[in-house]
Amino acid sequence: MLATLMLSAALTALVFTVGAQTIFAQRSVADLEPKAEYLSSIFQNYLSGWLPPMVFAQLIDATRQWGASILCLRIEGNGYAVEAETQFDIPSGINITSLASLDAQIDRVMSGDRVAFAGVLPDSSVNLLMVGQPVYEGEVQIGAVFLFRPMLEVNAALQSLNAALFFSLFAVLCLMIPVVCVASMRLIRPLKNMRDVALTMASGDFTIQANEFLRGEVGELAHSLNYLAFELSRTISELVLERNRLMQLLDGLSEGMAAVDSESQITHANPALMRFFGLREEANPDELLKKSEFAPVVEGFGYAIASHIPHHAFNIALGSRIFLVSISTLLNEDRVEGAVALMRDITESERLEQTRRDYVANVSHELRTPLTALRGLIEPLNDGLVKTEQDRSHYYQIIYKETLRLSRLIDDLLELSRLQSGGVLVERKKFDVIDLIQSFIFTYSNRAEQLGIDLVAEMPKEPLFADSNADRVEQVLVILFDNALKFTPEGGKIMLQVRDLGEEIELTVKDSGVGIAKEDLPNVFDRFYKADKAHGEPGTGLGLSIAKEIIRLMNGRISVESEPNEGAAFRFTIAKKES
User: Which of 410, 500, 511 is nearest to 454 (CA)?
Assistant: First the structure.
């Protein structure tokens, strides 16, 4: 504002200086023109003889008060003669009539034209005003009158005005500077305050407020700025809340998640993904790039981003686990801004799928074996190839045995299906586990003796009551006992142990047989699973699966411990009933 004020003053002075001289010259010329007309009428009367020479001289002398020089010319023949001449304020040494630059102006006036001239004469430094008026007698020009006024007088007046103008401008400027400074400060202070508020908002602090009580547009601007801050604060708070929710959701996923930008640089990885690759949950996501197992995921990111495909999926193996990696690209119109990968552990589903396939294959195998045997026995009988009654009886016995085997297989399949579907209700009652074990040993000791195996028990002497189903517990014991008999050689031992665990009772069937290989332990309770992959040992392979389902329905636990050639110990728990 101060610069504008000073510039306005300077331009005013410049325009006045340039234009005032011309305006003053024109006004001086206009002032001389009526005087020239008056002087021409006097000169006409003089030339016509109406005015005596003495009176004419007195009148010419009286014109000194006009501040102008006079030149009166009378036409004589083809020329003219000076009749009267005064030089007032003309610089000394200069004769107006001797100035050649005036000849053209004089000739014009002597030819009957009126002339008004202001400026510097071309062949001299004389700066003057000139007015020329022709003098007529009737229709005949008899002379001319010229008035000259030097520009010194005009310039002196102009300089006085310039001085007054400059002084006035300076005085006004001095008076306005404080006013402008105060007005500027009053205007700038709230603007600077709003600038500080805006900068503070840019740094993330929306609690600061601009002064809304100022008048005019500044107050409206402050109100708008405060409203903007409020809306930004609310919007950012909502975005932060949504981001935190999203981060908590992503961090809480059991699936691994990683996000990258368009340059395949990791921007986020959730804790589950870090655990998958053996890293601490709070580790830097860039640590993933150092893992060789993560290389296929990085390649998948690069392929998805380079090919602009919306979805890309593949499997990777981490140790014994299998993961499905699904990569989706983040598209912004036609540009790929990054990609997101979701890693899901499909080991169990793959195992279940393999189990399903094995189940179908095993059921087919187990059903085909007795059916093939039956067909092989029935065809000779049907064709009459068996002649003797003794051979036919032998064939019938084998057919009956295979039929029983097929029936047992079907019964086991149905039993397992009912247990797994939840269609079987296990009624829980109070019973003495010690009596159940003693009864079991009494029932099955002869069978063990026939195979040369000792069946012994290790249990408390006092009664131990359980809150379970005695028939189902005995069924599990029979399954485990049969399994122990299969793998315990002659001269071995099978031990039944009962332990009081406080709120539970633990029963153990331990044998001294061939044991179970370490790699087979996780799968012994699977359907149709047999350590001998050729299925050479007797049984359907469903007994341990049935036992596991029965214990699950009774809210118990079942497990196995074994070492090769050192036997196996199957343990399960049932609920205890206080006496």
Answer: 511
- Separation between Cα atoms, residue 214 and residue 537, nearest integer Å: 98
Q: How far is CA 141 from CA 3, 75, 132, 190, 191, in A?
A: 61, 8, 13, 79, 78
Closest to 9 in 3D by CA, of 166, 180, 217: 166
Which pair of structure tokens corresponds to residue 407? 């029936």
Using CA atoms, how far apart are residues 472 and 474, in angstroms rounded to an integer?
A: 5
Q: In sequence order, what DSSP letters do the residues of 489-511 get, joined into one string? A: -TT-EEEEEEEE-SSEEEEEEEE
* Chain centre to alpha carbon of residue 529: 53
Q: How confident is the model at residue 534 (pLDDT cuts 50, 70, 90)?
A: very low
Average pLDDT for residues 484-493, to the nearest whole number? Answer: 89
pTM over 0.70: no
Q: Which helix (H) or strand (E) holds 133?
A: strand 127-137
Cβ atoms within 10 Å, residue 89 = 14
Cβ atoms of 126 and 94 closer than 8 Å: yes
CA atoms within 13 A on the CB side of 362: 22
Nearest-CA neighbor of 494 among 506, 486, 502, 504? 486
CA distance 375 to 442: 40
Q: Is the dihedral of CA 56, 61, 66, 70 positive or negative?
A: positive
**Angle, CA of 317, 319 and 321, to the nearest 5°:** 60
pLDDT at 535 over 50: no
